[in-house]
Write a structure and sequence with these properties.
The protein is 0% helix and 51% strand. By secondary structure, the protein is mainly β. Strands 2, 4, 5, 6, 9, 10 and 11 form a seven-stranded mixed sheet that branches. It has a four-stranded antiparallel sheet with strand order 1-3-8-7, with no helix packed on it.
Length: 118
């Protein structure tokens, strides 16, 4: 079964850290452009970070630059989001997305909740 499974969310204090993982099942994510999105209640889903297939190109939402790092381990079929210096406004449901390019499928995970609270 083709799916993306996120994990690593939870409760963190402001200034704290979390590491999210997204594991692909049923397909190899090595040929997919990977990204993390987040969605707060009542808001649209927004792009947080993305990484190219070759791992040498990354991009970030301005709100997380310098604090979050996206990486991938194709051998483990996993993409990560290292989140440091967390802020209250980082609280959201975080989703992993795999995009295969023109004519290829797009997969989404089910999301993992991140809550930043003191």
């Amino acid at each position: 079964q083709v799916q993306l499974v996120e994990s690593g969310g939870g409760l963190a204090q402001p200034g704290g850290s979390l590491r999210l993982s997204c594991v692909a099942y049923g397909f190899s994510l090595s040929t997919y452009h990977m990204s993390w999105y987040r969605q707060q209640p009542g808001e649209d889903r927004e792009l947080v970070a993305e990484i190219s297939r070759s791992r040498d190109i990354t991009d970030y939402n301005d709100s997380v630059k310098g604090r979050f790092t996206i990486s991938r381990d194709n051998a483990k079929n996993t993409v990560y989001l290292e989140m440091n210096s967390l802020k209250f406004e980082d609280t959201a449901l975080y989703y992993c997305k795999a995009r295969g390019g023109v004519g290829r499928p797009i997969y989404w995970g089910q999301g993992t909740q991140v809550t930043v609270a003191s």
